[in-house]
């Protein structure tokens, strides 16, 4: 394993190298705190160990009888108080700066989901771009200890977030299901993504490169498997990326009124299933007893399709079991495809075995 | 504190002093109303829980020895982490201190027993049912709750029946804590021996008095928080659900209003124990008794206005972030006063270093490191960088394991002879101390580096760059665990079965009423109050 | 019984008792049953009810023991003081319990609700207008009307305030040694409490049928029902305590200067009263 540039180092013992003004300030603050604390620590325990060495009975030391002194008490109340104030002042400046999300060049909405991230470019260059970002590390590497692990094991994704260098990026976080938290250490940014609320933060990366982070709020079973990767590009490269991405999106945007064949849908559906559903319902469709219900043999999957469309679109809460709503995450085609896939896969042979995107579109209203 | 005398009052009571015989067999423990027996029950219970929580910790460390998922599914790993936290906090550390309170407070203030002896036993006998609910929740469909010991909504809303069992277990433990605290407060306020004014009371009683107030103030708030979780889960309320106008972050505010005072609940009695031990082995009166009392009270009061330092990354308004940063940092001041007073007590004393003193010094040294990392975390921008990483895990194990747990060990060695009537084996005590100290640091010091380098907590698997320090921590954890097994089999059990008879006052520098009664302390003590001068 | 006071031990410590451990078992059954119940396990309700009934039996026996000890002259003045301290701090813990729910109401109303409606959140909830008493931003909650102070809550306020007065009259009567007068005013207090509960039930009925205001009515319904519900529960407990006290008054357990059970129950009743005043203002008026 080697160091991951923009991610953790092997045997790393300190923060990753900062690439924003704020991260630099945090880095310096931490050094300052560390030094002050170390000095106090050495002073205080210097005294204690001196006393332990010298004032021991085995050396024949007799105990003194003093046991209080108001002056001393005041001194060691006031001096630490002043030290603490001294520590808080420089930190205050940074706190205020971190909170100033005004005048951003680009605004990106980041949505935490069990267990992936969604990115929507809202304002600025690239507005309109939107994609999901999933863990790219192959499953075998995780569960099979004989497989060699990549250098970026668990900190690589299929679609990284991309931003231009030296531009102020405002990040808006929110979540679909539970609380997640979005962080890139090199930027000095960490912001919880809270379902139903938006919160914001910002950064201005000063160096081109790839930067890595991981979800940092316990969000269920795959908490450790939803990394964050940000690709910082030069202005020109960013433009190219935006153009490319827009073309790609246009090509992918399916006409919801197109009629698909069942095989096309099943093929597409398998991809959607693996990326979104298998985490809970499992690739086998058997689910996890007590936690996630099976789809294989499930009456809804094998029954009338309208019911299943409704569940997938709007989610379902059944006691502790929660099916998330997918209407904001997946397109009509994707939903139609994945439903068709589940209706014909494993041992399922539903009567109504095909769902077209148009039906999903209709059900959305 | 000046010298003490137990005056033997003439037996002029008309009632029968031995109305209740010394009970025997299982009834003695099940139906106990004796503070010493109940204290013993508490101590054994908490030690059992320490073992169970420790086994869970070792399972965590086993999985984290290497990257990749070797042993457990991630959902089970999360259960391990959650239950480890819950069991250690509510099952091991808190009841252990209550056990000490039961044994020592009546002896220290010259009371015949706790104020409400039957309720005292009720407080204890609520703990095993709660533990049973928690532990058996592993066996129900979906397993134990895996939402972290903080049980954050709305993840806690997603959990299976194990979550409800945890909620009800915490309700029971909360009721137990509240009754226990009422008992302790009443005992201390109402049953001190004549002549023992509050400002002459041993420090351990002071710290427990203040702790009991904290408990009464915050346990009901926790009960409220988890009750809302319960109704959100099953009865369709929307406290923590934005769709209905609620707010997940509201849970965190309520939880941490409990949670932060809670961590001081776990450390103030530890301060009390250390404040008894240091003077005893320095053969010198505690320096700055009054300022120790004021510092303890200040810590307790400040603890109510710092809770949101656990929430800096939730996105609070900047004024709130600044307020909670300043308030949190202020706690360093009274805590510092305590450290300085201990060192001033040692200064120019005539010290010996038996095991209790070693653990007390170890406590001061390592706890302060944990305090400093706490202070570093209190600085909002730094916390934003380190929140939910292993740096936090390192911080709180420094204050909880090397803090609370070491103080408990110190207290065991100090008062154990009074409980069992036998001295522990000094060499073995020292082996226990040095192994604990070293393995503790091997386990938890590397976690600072992991956190700084960015390893998130509550992770079943991690990027391969973090491997080396994780391996080290796992090795340390097994070393620390074996040391505690050694403690049980080679220190505790032998010193219950026999050994050198303990003198009434085995430590020549020790002071206090507890040393005026025989070792082991007889079943009934101070039935007529001693006069305290 | 004051005649026996002189012979009371310095501090009475009861001998071994089976009630605490049985109480623990009863609560285990209650809680395990409740956990099963909320998860629709078949035997859940039965176990829970068995647990509650056993717990009540334990309490009955336990308090019986205490009363017997008290009547047997074993309780010195010092024990009386212990009871005073413990009751005060128990009530304080109850204050903190209600504090959690009042805090939730305050936070939801003054902090998260405006937040949900502010500019940033327009990204998520474009059409949401934040005002207290709405059905939440998702539109998944049926519309409902909110509960005003008239007429029931105001009547209830009068009932509870009056009950505070009748209880005080009863206490004065006890101190003056008029047993039947004590009992009569105490009975009036309990009656007022019961009437309060009756009105409360009527109000809930009205909420569910006429206002469509339910436990599931978003954060408004959640805070409304949990606050008033826990208060009602405490009124019930207080009324039970007063009933036991009434029984003991009639049995002649209390003397003009030795009757802490009466006072403790009265403190509790006044506490419940004060909580209501808080509720009346923040839940119904504001
Ligand atoms: C016994 C338990 C205990 C104790 C005593 C403390 C003590 C302190 N803690 Fe800790 N803390 C926890 C248990 C404890 N903590 C736990 C369990 C968590 C994690 C919970 C979770 O998320 O699961 C946590 C988390 C935690 C966080 C949140 C981290 C995060 O999640 O991002 C913060 C942030 O401010 C913090 C701060 C502090 C501070 C400032 C103190 C102070 O009280 C420390 C004061 C002591 C000193 C400073 C040292 C001695 C002083 C001197 C020698 C004087 C001179 C010094 C100076 C002038 C600098 N703690
Ligand atoms: C309150 C006290 C307390 C104590 C004493 C401990 C003790 C220990 N803790 Fe604990 N820990 C917490 C409180 C505590 N912890 C909390 C609150 C959390 C947060 C939970 C959360 O995130 O929700 C946490 C989280 C936590 C984590 C992070 C998990 C994660 O984020 O996923 C880790 C990881 O290493 C850890 C390790 C340990 C270890 C190795 C010990 C050791 O000190 C334990 C030593 C004891 C024993 C080992 C038992 C004795 C041995 C036996 C019974 C025999 C078997 C032994 C052998 C064969 C060797 N703890
Ligand atoms: Cu998403 Cu952790
Ligand atoms: Cu805290």
UniProtKB/TrEMBL annotation, chain B:
Q: Catalytic activity, per the record?
A: 4 Fe(II)-[cytochrome c] + O2 + 8 H(+)(in) = 4 Fe(III)-[cytochrome c] + 2 H2O + 4 H(+)(out)
PROSITE patterns from the UniProt entry: COX1, COX1_CUB
InterPro entries, sorted: Cyt_c_oxase-like_su1_dom (IPR023616), Cyt_c_oxase-like_su1_sf (IPR036927), Cyt_C_Oxase_1 (IPR000883), Cyt_c_Oxase_su1_BS (IPR023615), Cyt_c_oxase_su1_dom (IPR033944), Cyt_c_oxidase_su1_bac (IPR014241)
Pathway per the UniProt entry: Energy metabolism; oxidative phosphorylation
Q: Which residues form the Cytochrome oxidase subunit I profile domain?
A: 20-533
Q: What class of enzyme is it?
A: translocase
Topology relative to the membrane, per the entry? Answer: Multi-pass membrane protein
Keywords of the record, alphabetical order, are: Cell membrane, Copper, Electron transport, Heme, Iron, Membrane, Metal-binding, Oxidoreductase, Respiratory chain, Translocase, Transmembrane, Transmembrane helix, Transport
Question: Where does it reside?
Answer: Cell membrane; Membrane
The UniProt entry's GO biological process terms, in alphabetical order, are: electron transport coupled proton transport; oxidative phosphorylation; respiratory electron transport chain
Give GO terms: molecular function aspect only.
cytochrome-c oxidase activity; heme binding; metal ion binding; oxidoreductase activity
Q: Which residues cross the membrane?
A: 41-60, 80-103, 124-146, 166-191, 203-230, 250-274, 286-308, 320-344, 356-378, 390-415, 436-455, 475-496
Q: Name one GO cellular component term.
A: plasma membrane
E.C. designation(s): 7.1.1.9
Task performed by this protein = Cytochrome c oxidase is the component of the respiratory chain that catalyzes the reduction of oxygen to water. Subunits 1-3 form the functional core of the enzyme complex. CO I is the catalytic subunit of the enzyme. Electrons originating in cytochrome c are transferred via the copper A center of subunit 2 and heme A of subunit 1 to the bimetallic center formed by heme A3 and copper B.
Record-stated family: Belongs to the heme-copper respiratory oxidase family.
Q: Under what name is this protein listed?
A: Cytochrome c oxidase subunit 1
TrEMBL record, chain C:
Report the InterPro entries cross-referenced here. Cyt_c/ubiquinol_Oxase_su3 (IPR024791), Cyt_c_oxase_su3_dom (IPR033945), Cyt_c_oxidase-like_su3 (IPR000298), Cyt_c_oxidase_su3-like_sf (IPR035973), Cyt_c_oxidase_su3_a-hlx (IPR013833)
Which GO BP terms apply? aerobic electron transport chain
Q: Which UniProt keywords apply?
A: Membrane, Oxidoreductase, Translocase, Transmembrane, Transmembrane helix
Coarse class of the primary localization is membrane
Which GO terms of the molecular function aspect are on file?
Answer: cytochrome-c oxidase activity; oxidoreductase activity
Compartments it resides in: Cell membrane; Membrane
- Indicate the segments forming the Heme-copper oxidase subunit III family profile domain, all copies: 7-286
Q: What stretches pass through the bilayer?
A: 21-38, 44-64, 85-108, 150-170, 182-202, 222-247, 267-285
- According to the UniProt entry, the coiled-coil residues are none
* Enzyme Commission code(s) on record: 7.1.1.9
The annotated topology with respect to the bilayer is: Multi-pass membrane protein
Q: Name one Pfam family in it.
A: COX3
Q: Which GO terms describe its cellular component?
A: plasma membrane
Q: Which family does it belong to?
A: Belongs to the cytochrome c oxidase subunit 3 family.
State the name under which the record lists this protein.
cytochrome-c oxidase
Name the source organism.
Collimonas arenae
The lineage is: Bacteria, Pseudomonadati, Pseudomonadota, Betaproteobacteria, Burkholderiales
């Amino acid at each position: 394993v080697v160091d991951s540039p923009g991610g953790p180092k092997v045997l790393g013992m300190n923060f990753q190298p900062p690439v924003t003004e704020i991260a630099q300030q945090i880095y310096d603050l931490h050094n300052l705190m560390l030094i002050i604390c170390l000095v106090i620590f050495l002073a205080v325990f210097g005294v204690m160990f001196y006393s332990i060495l010298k004032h021991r009975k085995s050396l024949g030391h007799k105990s003194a009888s003093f046991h209080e002194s108001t002056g001393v008490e005041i001194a060691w109340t006031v001096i630490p108080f002043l030290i603490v104030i001294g520590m808080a002042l420089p930190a205050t400046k940074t706190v205020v700066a971190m909170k100033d999300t005004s005048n951003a060049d680009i605004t990106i909405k980041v949505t935490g989901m069990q267990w992936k991230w969604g990115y929507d470019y809202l304002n600025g260059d690239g507005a309109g771009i939107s994609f999901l970002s999933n863990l790219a590390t192959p499953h075998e590497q995780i569960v099979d200890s004989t497989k060699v692990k990549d250098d970026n094991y668990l900190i690589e994704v299929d679609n990284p977030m991309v931003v231009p260098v030296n531009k102020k990026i405002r990040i808006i976080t929110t979540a679909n299901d539970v609380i997640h938290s979005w962080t890139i250490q090199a930027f000095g940014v960490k912001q919880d993504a809270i379902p139903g609320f938006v919160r914001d933060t910002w950064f201005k990366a000063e160096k081109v490169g790839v930067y890595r982070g991981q979800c940092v709020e316990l969000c269920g079973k795959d908490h450790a498997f939803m990394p964050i990767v940000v690709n910082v590009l030069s202005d020109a490269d960013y433009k190219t990326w935006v153009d490319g991405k827009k073309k790609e999106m246009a090509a992918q945007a399916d006409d919801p009124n197109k009629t698909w064949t069942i095989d096309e849908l099943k093929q597409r559906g398998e991809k959607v299933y693996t990326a979104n559903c298998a985490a809970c319902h499992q690739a086998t469709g058997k689910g996890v007893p007590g936690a996630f219900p099976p789809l294989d043999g499930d009456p809804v999957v094998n029954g009338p399709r309208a019911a299943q469309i409704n569940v997938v679109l709007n989610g379902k809460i059944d006691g502790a079991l929660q099916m998330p709503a997918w209407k904001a995450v997946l397109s009509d085609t994707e939903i139609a495809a994945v439903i068709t896939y589940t209706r014909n896969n494993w041992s399922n042979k539903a009567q109504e075995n095909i769902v077209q995107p148009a039906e999903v579109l209709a059900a959305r209203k | 504190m000046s010298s003490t005398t137990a005056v033997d009052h003439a037996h002029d009571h008309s009632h029968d002093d031995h109305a209740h015989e010394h009970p025997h067999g299982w009834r003695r423990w099940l139906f106990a109303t004796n503070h010493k027996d109940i204290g013993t029950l508490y101590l054994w219970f908490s030690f059992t829980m320490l073992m169970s929580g420790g086994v869970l910790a070792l399972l965590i460390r086993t999985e984290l020895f290497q990257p990749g998922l070797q042993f457990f599914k991630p959902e089970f790993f999360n259960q391990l982490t959650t239950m480890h936290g819950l069991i250690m906090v509510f099952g091991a550390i808190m009841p252990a201190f209550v056990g000490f309170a039961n044994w020592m407070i009546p002896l220290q203030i010259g009371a015949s027993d706790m104020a409400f002896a039957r309720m005292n036993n009720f407080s204890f006998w609520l703990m095993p049912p709660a533990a049973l609910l928690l532990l058996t929740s592993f066996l129900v469909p979906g397993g134990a709750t895996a939402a972290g010991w903080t049980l954050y909504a709305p993840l806690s809303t997603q959990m299976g029946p194990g979550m409800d069992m945890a909620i009800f277990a915490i309700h029971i433990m909360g009721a137990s804590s509240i009754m226990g605290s009422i008992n302790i407060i009443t005992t201390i306020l109402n049953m001190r021996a004549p002549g023992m004014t509050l400002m002459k009371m041993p420090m351990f009683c002071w710290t427990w008095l203040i702790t009991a107030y904290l408990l009464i103030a915050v346990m009901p708030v926790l009960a409220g928080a988890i009750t809302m979780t319960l109704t959100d889960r099953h009865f369709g309320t929307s406290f923590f659900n934005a769709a209905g106008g609620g707010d997940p972050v509201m849970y965190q505010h309520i939880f941490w209003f409990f949670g932060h005072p809670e961590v001081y609940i776990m450390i103030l009695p530890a301060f009390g124990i250390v404040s008894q031990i240091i003077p005893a082995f320095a053969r010198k009166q505690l320096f700055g008794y009054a300022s120790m009392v004021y510092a303890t009270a200040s810590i307790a009061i400040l603890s109510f206005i710092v809770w949101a330092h656990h929430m800096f990354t939730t996105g609070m308004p900047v004024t709130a972030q600044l307020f909670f940063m300043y308030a949190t940092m202020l706690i360093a001041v009274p805590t510092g006063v305590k450290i300085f007073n201990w060192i001033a007590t040692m200064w120019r004393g005539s010290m010996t270093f038996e095991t209790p003193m070693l653990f007390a010094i170890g406590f001061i040294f390592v706890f302060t490191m944990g305090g400093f990392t706490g202070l570093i975390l209190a600085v909002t921008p730094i916390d934003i960088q380190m929140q939910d990483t292993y740096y936090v895990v390192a911080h709180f194990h420094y204050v909880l394991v090397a803090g609370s747990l070491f103080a408990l060990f110190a207290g065991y060695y100090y008062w154990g002879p009074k409980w069992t009537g036998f001295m522990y084996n000094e060499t073995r005590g020292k082996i226990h101390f040095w192994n604990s100290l070293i393995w503790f640091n091997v386990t938890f010091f590397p976690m600072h580096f992991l956190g700084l380098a960015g390893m998130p907590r509550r992770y079943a698997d991690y990027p391969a760059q973090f491997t080396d320090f994780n391996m080290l921590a796992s090795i340390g954890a097994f070393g620390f665990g074996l040391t505690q097994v050694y403690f049980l089999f080679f220190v505790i059990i032998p010193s219950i079965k026999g050994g050198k008879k303990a003198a009434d006052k085995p430590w020549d520098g020790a002071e206090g009423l507890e040393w005026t009664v025989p070792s082991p302390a007889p079943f009934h003590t101070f039935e007529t109050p001693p006069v305290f001068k | 019984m004051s005649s026996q006071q002189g012979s009371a031990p310095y501090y009475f410590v009861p001998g071994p008792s089976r009630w605490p451990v049985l109480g623990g078992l009863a609560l285990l059954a209650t809680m395990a049953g409740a956990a099963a119940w909320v998860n629709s396990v078949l035997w859940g309700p039965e176990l829970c009810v068995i647990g509650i009934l056993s717990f009540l039996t334990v309490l009955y026996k336990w308090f019986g023991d205490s009363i017997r000890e008290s009547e047997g002259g074993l309780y010195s003045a010092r024990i009386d003081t212990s009871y005073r301290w413990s009751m005060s701090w128990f009530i304080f813990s109850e204050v903190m319990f209600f504090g959690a729910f009042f805090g939730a109401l305050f936070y939801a109303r003054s902090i998260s609700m405006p937040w949900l409606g502010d500019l940033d959140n327009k990204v998520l909830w474009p059409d949401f207008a934040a005002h207290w008493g709405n059905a939440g931003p998702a539109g998944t909650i049926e519309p409902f009307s909110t509960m005003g102070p008239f007429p029931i809550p105001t009547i209830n306020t009068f009932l509870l305030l009056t009950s505070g007065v009748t209880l005080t009259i009863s206490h004065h009567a006890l101190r003056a040694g008029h047993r039947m007068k004590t009992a009569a005013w105490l009975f009036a207090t309990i009656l007022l409490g019961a009437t309060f509960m009756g009105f409360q039930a009527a109000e809930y009925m009205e909420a569910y049928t006429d206002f469509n205001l339910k436990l599931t009515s978003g954060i408004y319904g959640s805070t409304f029902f949990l606050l008033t519900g826990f208060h009602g529960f405490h009124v019930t407990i207080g009324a039970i305590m007063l009933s036991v006290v009434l029984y003991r008054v009639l049995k002649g357990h209390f003397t003009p200067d030795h009757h802490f059970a009466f006072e403790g129950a009265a403190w509790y009743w006044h506490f419940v009263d004060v909580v209501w005043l808080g509720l009346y203002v923040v839940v119904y008026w504001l």
